[in-house]
């Protein structure tokens, strides 16, 4: 008994596929999703949060490269499998920038890099540091000495900036994804109940919506964050709990319209329950506007998270977020190494713009007047 929403959706997809701007924005969104999912596979620094520090290498320029010697720590182990690939490896080694390395007898001699035009003394460590961890002598230089390239240079702690930017994509994208999931779930349920039952239930729903709507989103998110604590998952929940009102208003309006349609009256005449009418008969016809507003909410969630991280109440260091990366390096805009602040800001700009453009194009494609 539902309206033929599938044919409308098919026509919208055909129209979108012919829109160059829509396809470019969709490509950017899918690229961000791919980078988010395989972030540690794409990053140079595969440690958790790309937090491996080397203060000697701080503020190195773009495309800087140097020899790196890895010294295994007490907790060193071969980290393989699903978890390290998707969530990063634990730091179980120390990275030392070196100028010269030589293996003699039972010792490893190396000359550490301490800065431009500075000479360091040659240091010696026993190869037992490696062999005690089950590493064969002939594999020491092969597996633990390498030329490391920093594609986008390093930050104030000598961390690989490219890797930090890649991992930051995951934080920002997942905040938008979780926030949209929470807001759509709450908004659809609340809006559907208010629009279908009307009367006192609708009055209560609208009162709650108006109260929440009257509070600025950023202030409400800050209040929730302060109440439940700072952190990675807390910011997901806080942003999601503030964005459901727009979804609820749209769904309520759609339900007020559809509940008077003939197919709904026919469903009531056949004795279908209210839950079936709401979720199986009316809700499929409301999907289009919900998708459009979800795209806008996705972009808004990324902006809110970046703002909170910039203020210090979002994702906490060393977790990289585009917002806190800007916070750490915004002073470089007027000094040197400007890319440390410009690149994360550019990432936010491009991703938010892509979501907004795609949302607008999707809205136009799903408009009956334009099909």
Question: Can you offer a commentary on this structure?
Answer:
- This protein is of the alpha+beta class and 371 residues long.
- It folds into 2 domains: 238 residues, MetI-like fold (Orthogonal Bundle), CATH 1.10.3720; 112 residues, no CATH class.
- Helix content is 58%, strand content 10%.
- The protein contains 16 helices and 5 strands.
- A 5-stranded antiparallel beta sheet has the order 4-3-2-1-5.
- A hairpin with a 2-residue loop joins strand 2 and strand 3.
- The longest helix is centred in the middle third of the chain and has 37 residues.
- The two termini are 22 Å apart.
- What is the straight-line distance between the termini? 22 Å
What oligomeric state do these chains adopt? single chain
Proportion of helical residues: 55-70%
Number of helices: 16
The name CATH uses for the topology of the largest domain is MetI-like fold
SS-based class: alpha+beta
Count of all domains: 2
How does the major sheet shape up? Answer: 5 strands, antiparallel
The run of helices and strands is: HHHEHEEEHHEHHHHHHHHHH
Shape field: elongated
Poorly predicted segments: 1-5
Mean pLDDT: 87
CATH architectural label of the largest domain: Orthogonal Bundle
Assigned CATH class of the largest domain: Mainly Alpha
The neighbouring-strand order within the major sheet is 4-3-2-1-5
Q: Please tally the β strands and state the result.
A: 5
